[in-house]
Amino acid sequence: MIILGIDPGSHFCGYGVLQVENRKIVAAGCDVIKINPKLPLPERLFKIYIEMKKIIAEYKPDIAAVETIFYGKNIKSAFTLGHARGAILLSLAEREIEIKEFSPREVKKSVVGNGNASKEQVEYMVQKMLNIKIKSKSMDATDALAIALCQFNKDKLRVKK
C-alpha cells in the first residue's frame, strides 16, 4: 500500500510518501512543490494541479491523507489555502484515490502525542519514527510525511480492533 500525505500550500506544497507492506513502513520520502508566489493565483493553482498529477502518476498511491485548513487570523490566506486544497483534491478525485482529511491538531497528536506540538517537534518525531534524516527539505515536506504517518497510525489502530 502507498500512502500519500499532502500539506497544502499556495507557495510550497509538501508531499510525503509511505510504502507499507504487512503493516510495516518499508520506504518513505518527501519533497515540496515550489510555486512562484509572484504568479497570479489561477496560475499557481494550475501548477499545483499539474504537479500533483505527476506525483500521483509516479507513486500511484492507494490512499491520500490531506491536511485540513488551519483557521488563522488572516481570512485571505485561509481562502487561498482552500483554493490550493481544491486543486489537490481534484487531482486525487480524478484518479479515484480515497481521500482522508486530518486537522493539524490530529496530525500533531498522532505523531508527537501533543496536539500543540511545534513544527520542529513534528520534524524530529517524523525522522525518529521513520529512522531517516531529511536534509535541506522544507518543513512542509516533513509535515506531509507526518500527515501520511497519521493515516498509517489510524489504519493500524483500525485493523487491531
What does this structure look like?
- The chain is of the alpha/beta class and 161 residues long.
- It has a single domain (2-160), classed as Nucleotidyltransferase, domain 5 (2-Layer Sandwich).
- 50% of the residues lie in helices and 23% in strands.
- It has helices spanning 41-59, 75-94, 104-111, 119-130, 139-160, and strands spanning 2-7, 12-21, 24-34, 63-67, 98-102.
- A 5-stranded mixed beta sheet has the order 3-2-1-4-5.
- A hairpin with a 2-residue loop joins strand 2 (12-21) and strand 3 (24-34).
- Helix 1 (41-59) packs parallel to helix 2 and helix 3 (104-111) crosses helix 5.
Can you count the beta strands? 5
Radius of gyration: 15 Å
Helical coverage, percent range: 40-55%
CATH class: Alpha Beta
Could you give the order of the helices and strands?
A: EEEHEHEHHH
Described by the principal axes of the CA atoms, the overall outline is: globular
Arithmetic mean of pLDDT: 92
Helix/strand layout:
Elements: E1 2-7, E2 12-21, E3 24-34, H1 41-59, E4 63-67, H2 75-94, E5 98-102, H3 104-111, H4 119-130, H5 139-160
Parallel strand pairs: 1-4, 4-5
Antiparallel strand pairs: 1-2, 2-3
List keywords for this structure.
Nucleotidyltransferase, domain 5, alpha/beta, 23% strand, five-stranded mixed sheet, 5 strands, 161 residues
